[in-house]
Design brief:
8 helices; globular
């Protein structure tokens, strides 16, 4: 596990006017709500097409601290939907690319970069939280696409009364206006979150009736399955293979409904991320 803790501000550069950059928060949330946001610590797990936009929104809202968790590196295929994915950042670790971007937005933000994948064994030890951390100014945004990791984070949040919002599958969705936020018990059209709901009830004793206490971002749009012919064209060099009815069934997704197996568009993935960040900021500010 690689961990980098970096206050983004670099000595020798002009000190930014933080009130000018982020002062509009007080006009929207009131002085107390804005102060809580400015003191907040937000954890973003997964910096893909959803999590990168959530981290972007949090940094542009002036939060004091961001913890970014992801082991992946930026690939050229990420450019269509991930805010930190550029020609100049291909090959760079996602957390470091996001940290450098945040430094240009909110140079006083402390950015903790953890190059690791979350799983049931390492959560929440990755965070190094002390027993007295301020739960009111702390939110976890779960933007990963592995159901075991999502279940572990959600179970921990329920048990410890920590604010967490879990993001469903953005792959295979085209209609940004169908994105919604609700308790996990009310989520529809999302097999990934449905699997998490099943695991929480079966393995962690989560409520079977009524609200479960985990807020989720999801889309009420039906999942659009990938075009098999198009997917196969990307996997097989047409100079070496001929597409036939026998080869089409070889096209498989990875079962997670993430953007690798299904088509994706930034209009939807960014909406998922912005909705998650919006919920987190409102929670911290005391709106609900």
């Amino acid at each position: 596990m690689s961990v980098t803790v970096t206050p983004s501000h670099t000595s020798g550069t002009a000190d930014p006017d933080m009130e000018r950059r982020f002062g509009s928060l007080a006009r929207l949330y009131g002085p107390e709500g804005a102060q809580r946001i400015r003191a907040a610590h937000i954890v973003v797990v997964g910096l893909g097409g959803v999590g990168s936009w959530a981290a972007e929104a949090a940094s542009r809202s002036g939060v004091a601290r961001l913890t970014l968790i992801d082991l992946d590196h930026i690939a050229e295929s990420n450019i269509n939907r991930q805010v930190h994915a550029l020609g100049s950042t291909v090959g760079q670790s996602k957390v470091q690319a996001m940290r450098e971007r945040i430094a240009q937005i909110n140079p006083h933000c402390q950015v903790d970069c953890i190059e690791e994948f979350v799983d049931a064994e390492n959560w929440p030890a990755l965070l190094s939280l002390d027993a007295l951390f301020d739960r009111q100014e702390f939110v976890v945004i779960d933007a990963c696409d592995q159901v075991k990791a999502k279940s572990a984070m959600a179970a921990w949040a329920i048990k410890n009364k920590v604010s967490l919002i879990s993001v469903g599958a953005a792959g295979g969705k085209r209609l940004a206006h169908r994105v919604d936020i609700d308790d996990l018990s009310q989520v529809t059209h999302d097999p990934l979150l449905a699997q998490m709901r099943y695991r929480l009830r079966k393995e962690h004793g989560a409520a079977r009736v009524g609200k479960m206490g985990v807020m989720c971002v999801f889309s009420r749009e039906e999942v659009l399955k990938p075009n098999a012919q198009s997917a196969l064209n990307q996997q097989i060099d047409s100079a070496e293979a001929t597409l036939t009815e026998q080869t089409i069934p070889l096209v498989q997704t990875d079962g997670t409904l993430n953007c690798h197996g299904y088509g994706s568009i930034v209009c939807v993935t960014s909406t998922f991320g912005m909705c998650a960040a919006s919920w987190a900021l409102n929670k911290i500010a005391g709106i609900f």
